[in-house]
């Protein structure tokens, strides 16, 4: 133990505080106002830091680490541009409730407010996209703030917390002393479930003939997958999992309906529109799930909502039964009392829909279809990989065609829809899960938003399998222009993109390319055999669209089935 | 149905807490008719009283979203019949010597007071609920209001109840 009288700097307080919180790795980028913090890392073998090539890469990596492990991800950047480069990643984490502690430097307190060099009021800038934020004005507050930040980030509805440390504070001396327990009067992590509401839900289930569960990211965040499976089995209620919920319920389960919403399955969307009881579990009735709100679930006699965040109850959809609390706790109690719904013929109908209208695409022997690539990746990895995606068509195809079996195996920016997330998040996921296969699936657009992090994979030999589905266009934008804007294509051509294989090799990462089915399988198997990082570019046609599709303004039953029909 | 609501919010007296609260209202499209902040009975805490307009669903969202802020300790909707709500207004009104008796008459009826007299105008201090303040302002308007400053409503629950 350290001598109680020992004086240490704010930077040392920070590093010790992070280690005490169990932080395995910090993703960051140095700069003038974090020099003392980086100085404290010198000669500290316990503290692991990964230098990314852009602050956005650092925060997405921290996000991928957090989503895949359930632990708090940490990133560090300097003041001003360093801090503002984190903003997209903070918003990404906020929208999907990901626990991250973001540490930024700031200018010395003496010049704060004078527009000093590299000054930005990052606490204010991030107020609407953080769960909480601290500006540390005195080093003596720092130990408490670190403890509170980790506690706030990873309890209740999780989310990013910012700690902004002015340069002088990071060099201010203090005597270390044991800190007291966390006291946050205004903060309650998870409210205790109100059992009478859960009892109402159980009653509604027994009266229901056409119930459906919409399971979202909350199931994953609360580690409640096992409870969800037991609950669905016991109540005989089919389950649809939202984009964030994928993997929270095994895709092989007979009661699984696939994903709902804009690009959801026929079975899932039809089930919601015909259900007499909707049970949302850790899902927030996002507009991409509900589509036109006043036509959402028109047959539902009751809507029940299980969520840790009281503010989500009734926010978008009128709720009859509100079970506020940690999902695991609510379901654990519900399982002990719930009986089956009268859902026998309903399940028959739904299973029939699954077989009659499966996800389909027009395959080809001559052309490599993107959907085929995703199916191949799913089959060859048995649904056991950790998958990260970027945003766009490949993201939806991944959600549709990868058969997820485990929670925390799909990391994707759902709420914010952040391009550039797919690749750096995989680096964080791999560091948090060194023994798992991590596959990062990207389009040719998003890959170019954070491609610089290939350097990180190369120098640390982080064995992420990087997939680039290259259709030479911004596919999802093209799809909307084609279908909604009368095919008036505008600025979607990605001509001038680099040769991705050469790009990877330029960074020292192996690169492979495939343009036919046979090449695809060969290249992919070669990638899986490769011990280190490898990038595989799959050249696919630009014409493919994602179906089913519900247009904005339409109701869930107004699906365009496209090639499926 | 859109109605006026008075919400009492107990917050940590931290830098930026007003910004957090007002930012939340702006971002979520909630309206602020008035907002007052000041020290309260406990050191380290402040009490904000916010007057807003919205339907029941909006009110519920406002209360819940406010409560999510870490620096917010307590949120209470003050019902009209169960609260005392007061606002203070300073009204600088044109007051030629000939008009002064009339104005003083109005001031007396409203139990307001004259806190400054100049050669051509006077400052009237009025305290009361929203309707009373609006009424005196309307009556004084005919004389010519030079400047007007209102504090916004502050409020407490009546009787033994307390927002603590």
Automatic annotation (TrEMBL), chain A:
Cofactor dependence is on: thiamine diphosphate; Mg(2+)
Give yes or no: UniProt keyword NADP.
no
Give the record's keywords alphabetically. Amino-acid biosynthesis, Branched-chain amino acid biosynthesis, Magnesium, Metal-binding, Thiamine pyrophosphate, Transferase
Tell me the superkingdom of the source.
Bacteria
What is its pathway? Amino-acid biosynthesis; L-isoleucine biosynthesis; L-isoleucine from 2-oxobutanoate: step 1/4; Amino-acid biosynthesis; L-valine biosynthesis; L-valine from pyruvate: step 1/4
NCBIfam families to which the protein is assigned, alphabetical: acolac_lg (TIGR00118)
Give the family this protein belongs to, as stated in its UniProt record.
Belongs to the TPP enzyme family.
Q: What is this protein called?
A: Acetolactate synthase
Its lineage opens with: Bacteria, Bacillati, Bacillota, Bacilli, Bacillales
The gene that this protein is the product of is: ilvB
TrEMBL record, chain B:
One Gene Ontology molecular-function label? acetolactate synthase activity
The annotated pathway is: Amino-acid biosynthesis; L-valine biosynthesis; L-valine from pyruvate: step 1/4; Amino-acid biosynthesis; L-isoleucine biosynthesis; L-isoleucine from 2-oxobutanoate: step 1/4
E.C. numbers: 2.2.1.6
Q: Which Pfam families match?
A: ACT_AHAS_ss (PF22629), ALS_ss_C (PF10369)
Q: Which residues form a coiled coil?
A: none
InterPro entries on file = Acetalactate_synth_ssu, Acetolactate_synth/TF_NikR_C, Acetolactate_synth_ssu_C, ACT-like_dom_sf, ACT_dom, AHAS_ACT, AHAS_small-like_ACT
All copies of domain ACT, residue ranges = 6-80
The UniProt entry, under PANTHER family, shows: ACETOLACTATE SYNTHASE SMALL SUBUNIT (PTHR30239), ACETOLACTATE SYNTHASE SMALL SUBUNIT 1, CHLOROPLASTIC (PTHR30239:SF0)
Which family does this protein fall into? Belongs to the acetolactate synthase small subunit family.
Q: What does this protein do?
A: Catalyzes the conversion of 2 pyruvate molecules into acetolactate in the first common step of the biosynthetic pathway of the branched-amino acids such as leucine, isoleucine, and valine.
Self-association and partners: Dimer of large and small chains.
Question: What name is this protein filed under?
Answer: Acetolactate synthase small subunit
Query: What organism does this protein naturally occur in?
Result: Paenibacillus mendelii
Q: What is the lineage of its organism?
A: Bacteria, Bacillati, Bacillota, Bacilli, Bacillales
